[in-house]
Amino acid sequence: MNYETVIGLEVHVQIKTRSKMFCGCATEFGAAPNTRVCPVCLGYPGVLPVLNEEAIRKTILAGLMLGCTIARCSKWDRKNYFYPDMPKNYQISQYDLPLCTGGAVGSIRLTRIHLEEDVAKSFHFATTSGVDFNRAGTPLMEIVSEPEIRSPEAAFAYLTALKEILVAGGISDCDMEKGQLRCDANISVRPVGQTKFGPKVELKNLNTISGVRRALAYEAQRQMTALQKGEQIAQETRRWDDDAGKTVVMRTKEYAHDYRYFPEPDLMPVVISDAWLAEIRRDLKELPEARRRRFVAHYGLPEYDAGVLVANAAVADFFEKAAGQNPKAVANWIMSVSDITATPIQPAHLAELVAAIEAGRISSKQGKDVWAEMLATGQPPGAIIQKKGLAQVSDTGALEAFCDQAIAAHPKSVADYRAGNTAAINFLKGQVMKLSKGKANPQLVGEILARKLLGGES
Amino acid sequence: MSLSALTIHETRDRLRRGDITARQVTQAVLDRIAAVDGKVQAYLWLNPDDALRQAAAADVTKPLGGIPVALKDVINVTGQPCTCASKILQGYIAPYDAFVVRQLKAAGAVLLGRTNMDEFAMGSSTENSSWGTTRNPWDLARIPGGSSGGSAAAVAADEAIAALGSDTGGSIRQPAALCGCVGFKPTYGRVSRYGLVAFASSLDQIGPLTKDVRDCAMLLNVLAGHDALDSTSVPRPVPDYTAALGQDVKGLRIGLPKEYFIPGLDQEVEATVRAAVRQLESLGAEVVEISLPHSEYAVAVYYLIATAEASANLARFDGVRYGLRVAGDDVNDLYGNTRGAGFGPEVKRRIILGTYALSAGYYDAYYLRAQKVRTLIRQDFATAFQKCDVIVTPTTPEVAFKAGEKSADPLKMYLSDIFTISVNLAGICGISVPCGFVRKLPVGLQIIGPAFGEESVLRVAHAYEQATAWHKERPAL
């Protein structure tokens, strides 16, 4: 029998804000344990949460980018469960009135996007455990897809596209190494043609996008094999063990949590006014896919170049500022380094470099030297060209003199050329370049030499 | 007369005239505590040296300059314990100031010490404290009411010039009534809850317990105000509440809810309250009968909503970060051991009730239904306030009962708050003022106002107080 895989993804994304969701603590990564905490994010007795407006704004912005319906009134709920990484033993989240509903990533529709607070991080030592609360209270967006993903590869593509959009929008850096993007997957299989879903398994601990693909591939196969053997699939939560390359049972359905959601009495519902929504809409960024298409159509870039540039929104922005009259050349220079925005080079300087080469002020080879200097010092190309005396000699008077000198010194080459060996001109060209210390405009030199040789001047 | 017997305004006047010093006032109160608190047991924690230091440094030109104020053990003060009368917070020292504490400090008050209460404010007798029972200064065999029983008893026994309490279902007004002092529950959102350890977040409110209505208004002036750290605090200007005092009540309409004069209401208490109503009438107020038809559901609604919220609010006491920790084999064991040893029986009962009310399959029937009825109760008051300016009721159905009399029967105990609970559910304000004695025990008159109707309530309370002398009675200790 043929089976079909049904996958839905729940993606948690840390939102890029300076402070936490409900207090003023910094959200920076990598600080010494428990140094970015206060009574509020530690859940001390008597503290109250205060909403971070920027987190709400960015969630709405993400919703707009993904084509979601934005709630006009959204509220907060408490999700109750005990765990040492949860300071209050309830998480402030959104249950039935999330900020965003609907929308899509490519052809995969979204159920909802809601906002909640991140938990702390547990560490297990030889005989004790420790909790670092620096992360506790970081704004976290949960993006839930419909169960419309039909293969591990499609899940991979969904995550890649989602990540690209969120990075482009400045909503999150989505760095999985830093835990800024985390994913849980619901997966089931069913015979092709059956409309009813099979029992779903929730997969946890999917720490990389390629790990998600491996875990889903393993789990889909596990379920199909079980069904073929006539076994039942249990509705349960399984953990992906990346080293072992398999999923293991974490908890079965009987131990599923009853989260006892109820409205958070410490926070007022958020009312999103037309004015605020319009203001957020003004920050709306072009989706990466649309931008790629525009780079091809408008700048005439190859698909490949457009893809590379758009993969990093800041790089793409850099390109657009520098593109000028020769976008392809600009793209080539940008793609010669891993991240142009991490270099001291300014878009206007790159534009100037390309223009200088284009106009023949310097040769392409000299361009490379200037580029190296720009990377090292961040100076504008004009200053570098001047400092190094690189500007090409295009003064025909000086060039004529060099050409006359070369012709006089190498009569054999002149004779060869005149006898029909046209390649002999290259030797003479080389001599002129040498006399000019490499600054002669090679094109002009070629023209002058040809004229002089053919005209019989000597 | 000892300085400890003075009111806030009497103390302030003498301090400003230079008749006395702030240090003398605090010393007098500390002496009084030393003399009588062995009997009353109102305080859980005192730091006399620190109190005297604060007094010596007090600026008497400030609104509460040099006035010693006691705090219920549920309000955080930097460097002080805050146990909520619970073993689970043993050893916890607060790292921050509550909003009201910042306000009191800025107003020059002397923070005297911390008063006893029912554990986590759950109770009506202060018998649910983990640290012993406070006694009613009028009869030491009786309870002072609760949960702010320590604060009420301290004020009644002149062990403080004034005190703060918190009121979730009557926890300021009921002990004020039973101890013969003034207790005010402000409108929800009028006083910031930041730093008040939460029992039921949608109902809790901090308020004053004082010796008279003027003191109540003066203290409220300092406590009220918007706080950005409490999202439920209302950004509304704070009037000078003392400006509402000294006005007459001529033409003011006073509503008497027929549902509040019920069987179960002590006949002598009823007679006392009706006499107070006649007194108001004689002062020119107009009495109108009103109806609050959903009153009979208030106690049931309260014990679903308050316990549901409490079940989440008290989840943070787990032995991981602060307070008591009782080790276990694994983390679930540690939770169970810590919470099993740390919480008293009433707190456990309410956590279980609230957890049940929120559970899958019961949420709609209990929590959700209760929220709907809460809306009806709120609408009852909105309708009633179209016919009257304030509502007058007994604060409690009976006078102070004997210690141990109801502690075995939670339901009976819950009915002590039958007249006060609706005010919290509706989010409006109410005061209890002394209105007489039954069998030598104080009786409280509750005056209820609409949301942000503090001034009307204070106006009526003060007019009544000016016409009577009940508030001047003091227990013989």
Structural notes for this entry:
- Chain A is α+β, with helices and mostly antiparallel strands and 458 residues long.
- Chain A folds into three domains: 274 residues, no CATH class; 92 residues, no CATH class; 59 residues, Arc Repressor Mutant, subunit A, CATH 1.10.10.
- In chain A, the strands form four sheets. In chain A, strands 1, 2, 6, 7, 8, 11, 12, 13, 14 and 15 form a ten-stranded mixed β-sheet that branches. Chain A has a three-stranded antiparallel β-sheet with strand order 5-4-16, with no helix packed on it. A two-stranded antiparallel sheet of chain A has the order 3-17.
- In chain A, α2 packs antiparallel against α3 and α14 crosses α15.
- The termini of chain A are far apart.
- The mean pLDDT of chain A is 92.
- Chain B is an alpha/beta fold and 477 residues long.
- Chain B folds into two domains: 272 residues, Alpha-Beta Complex (Amidase signature (AS) enzymes); 77 residues, no CATH class.
- Chain B contains 15 helices and eleven strands.
- In chain B, α2 packs antiparallel against α3 and α7 packs antiparallel against α15.
- In chain B, 62% of the residues are buried.
In short:
The complex is a heterodimer of chains A (458) and B (477). With 458 residues, chain A is an alpha+beta fold.
Secondary-structure blueprint:
The complex is a heterodimer of chains A (458) and B (477).
Chain A: E1 3-14, H1 53-65, E2 69-70, E3 73-74, E4 77-80, E5 90-93, E6 100-101, E7 104-105, E8 108-117, E9 121-124, E10 129-132, E11 139-145, H2 152-168, E12 181-191, E13 201-206, H3 209-228, E14 236-241, E15 246-252, E16 262-263, E17 270-271, H4 274-282, H5 288-299, H6 303-310, H7 313-322, H8 327-335, H9 347-358, H10 364-377, H11 381-388, H12 396-409, H13 411-418, H14 424-435, H15 442-454
Parallel strand pairs in A: 13-14
Antiparallel strand pairs in A: 1-11, 1-12, 2-6, 3-17, 4-5, 4-16, 6-8, 7-8, 8-11, 9-10, 12-13, 14-15
Chain B: H1 8-17, H2 22-40, E1 43-46, H3 48-57, E2 68-72, H4 99-106, E3 110-115, H5 149-156, E4 162-166, H6 173-179, E5 182-185, E6 206-210, H7 213-223, E7 253-257, H8 267-282, E8 286-290, H9 298-313, H10 331-342, H11 345-358, H12 364-384, E9 390-394, H13 410-414, H14 421-426, E10 429-438, E11 441-449, H15 454-467
Parallel strand pairs in B: 2-3, 2-4, 7-8, 7-9
Antiparallel strand pairs in B: 1-3, 4-6, 5-6, 5-10, 9-11, 10-11
Helix pairs in contact in B: 2-3, 5-6, 7-15, 9-11, 9-12
